[in-house]
Design the sequence.
């Protein structure tokens, strides 16, 4: 038996999130089923994070313990046959038994995409928030800069999470215009429930003139969810990269 | 009553093609239903071409006759509410009554996308053919050049079409590398059944070394379907532009 690290990507549109659920199709469920078929024994995986229903991953990392009957480099093609088309395993590596995808990473980067065009793009609609408003990217970046560093982000957390500490450290928050799209890249050491989607919704309201970027530091310090912006919808959110040393 | 010209785009993945069918969901069916709801009277549309099941359109043009109760510039938003998310009407214009989307255009451009990466891209998989082979784009372009001009393309037509003339004029056939993707752009005055998909499949086999580009002129002249390549799958094909004077 060995411990394997998997790198995968998925279109989360048709899933109830990553984590196994009693009712509802999940990425974890599909992946464990596929691996169980490959190894002909029950496989349980440990993921690097829970992503919400409808959220995507360009790079997701998880690990599992399995018999050594399949060489790591052959696993991606072997599991391909048992996976739906919206999940793709691109890499499998042998790792030390103590490896843990969630606790061993030194941060995760998410990308949130907003399409501001008047009409939705039928080709990319599954992966972006259609928000047909003029957005001032400079104001958004000014507000974004206030998030950098360690802050108590309890004003940027949805109810329903039972987390004890609410301080997280944001090391990158870039707002980038790409034609009619605005992309928000955020890297932090960890995230509260819906934190990226609330930050994206808040920055969109800054861009749209509904929140003044000069108030952002105050809004963060207030820890008051009602002063932050809306929770942007899940389709715009993609886990972009998981960082390991 | 006036004649209106509509410009739309669609993700054809979940449709049995453009044209109305007795059984099966079609773009035309969804669009006529939506327009009928907007105008509160039966609307019939005339399209610029039949696209096959699973084929997409970046730009599709059709026309219909309707009462003048909705200003043309308001129609795209009015019809939005009744359309599924994979069909998007971006423009509506008043045109002379004699306008015909199919007979009045002076050519159509299609784009066929091949993804040659080892693993499928979960974000673009609906719009490209996953063909994980090394493709020699220079050889493909050399073969592509043989298609330019007027030719009898009956060797590049699937059975089941009841067309009389089989001569078509190709005015553009470009093979373009875009990272791990190869895109084939073709413009012609008209197309035989599956013509673009057979040309794409044939060029892929040239790129992969299975067909010699020096044989291409002969293969075209032979009018022998068995000498051309495979019919590439529908997901890679997109109607890219319809040209009007």
Sequence:
């Amino acid at each position: 038996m060995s411990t394997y690290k998997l790198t995968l990507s998925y279109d989360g549109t048709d899933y109830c999130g990553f984590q196994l659920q009693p009712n509802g199709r999940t990425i974890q469920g599909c992946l464990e089923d596929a691996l169980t078929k490959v190894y002909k024994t029950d496989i349980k995986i440990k993921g690097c994070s829970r992503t919400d229903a409808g959220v995507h991953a360009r790079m997701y990392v998880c690990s599992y313990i399995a018999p050594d009957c399949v060489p790591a480099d052959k696993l991606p093609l072997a599991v391909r046959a048992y996976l739906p088309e919206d999940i793709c395993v691109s890499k499998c590596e042998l790792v030390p038994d103590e490896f843990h995808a969630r606790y061993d990473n030194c941060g995760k980067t998410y990308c949130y995409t907003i399409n501001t065009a008047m009409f939705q793009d039928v080709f990319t609609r599954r992966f972006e928030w259609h928000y047909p408003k003029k957005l001032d990217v400079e104001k958004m970046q000014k507000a974004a800069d206030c998030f950098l560093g360690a802050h108590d982000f309890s004003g940027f957390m949805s109810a329903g999470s039972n987390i004890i500490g609410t301080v997280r450290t944001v090391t990158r928050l870039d707002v980038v215009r790409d034609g009619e799209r605005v992309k928000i890249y955020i890297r932090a050491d960890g995230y509260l429930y819906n934190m990226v989607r609330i930050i994206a919704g808040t920055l969109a309201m800054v861009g749209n003139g509904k929140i003044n970027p000069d108030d952002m530091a105050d809004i963060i310090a207030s820890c008051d969810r009602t002063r932050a912006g809306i929770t942007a919808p899940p389709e715009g959110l993609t886990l972009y990269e998981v960082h390991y040393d």
